User: What shape does this take?
Amino acid sequence: MEKRSRAFYVLATIFALFLVFLYGPTITIAILSFQGPQGGLTFPMRGVSVHWFEDLFRQQAVGDIWGSFARSLTLGLMVMVTTVIVSVMGGLAFRKRFPGSSVIFYLIITSLVIPSILISLGVGLIFSQSGLAVHWSTLGFGAQLTWTLPFGLLIMFAVFNRFDKSYEEAARDQGASAWQTIRYVVLPIIAPMLIGVALFGFTLSYDEFARTLLTSGSYNTLPLEIYGMTTNVTTPVIFALGTLTTAFSFLIIGLFLAIVITLNRRRSKHGSDAGQGLV
Assistant: This one.
């Protein structure tokens, strides 16, 4: 019992140190973002205020903060929707073996191990040499899909490998078409996993830097804008921006989790109602 207690405390200490390492920098930035008007980028703090948050909503001479945020949000939604749709289609397609399926699978995985900056550089060079316009909504969109689609597809492969095909067989026995089976049987069952894929797609796109560096054209996304600010901004306004973007990320995660919880509750309720009906 004593050995178990010691092991528990050791593991708890390691986990606590990991949390400090993981969230310590974010918490430090959040604290420094509440510096007074005369505050700097380091401790000790010179007063406490929301001055630098208010400064974010004034006309900025350091960059296009809100424009870059709108572009990242739009790009994230585009990538999210595309990732969900293609991942579901790919998961359904890979349920059966077809010629070249192994090659396609390994090509999908390969994009995860290639350095992100090389993908950005290669795609950017191809477009520029071809005389095509480099823009965040086209080239940046495609480059980010090389990052989000493999994750989405891997999740869907795992989901469909464990999917009970008897549900589909029962639907077909009742006269449902292939589309009706997918619409009314498959999609409702895998809906919580689709929310997970959507969360992956949006957050990976929203935070992506390397794959967007050379593919965004003349307009920065938010990660690129923040990186640019680190070279010429010497006030805590950059900390305030970091705090707001972090809070926005947690808000998005909370929203997706709330959707998953709601879906699971509805499923449990429908299951219990069906059980009572059988009784």
Notes: The first helix runs from residue 2 to 32. Confidence is low (pLDDT under 50) at residues 273-279.
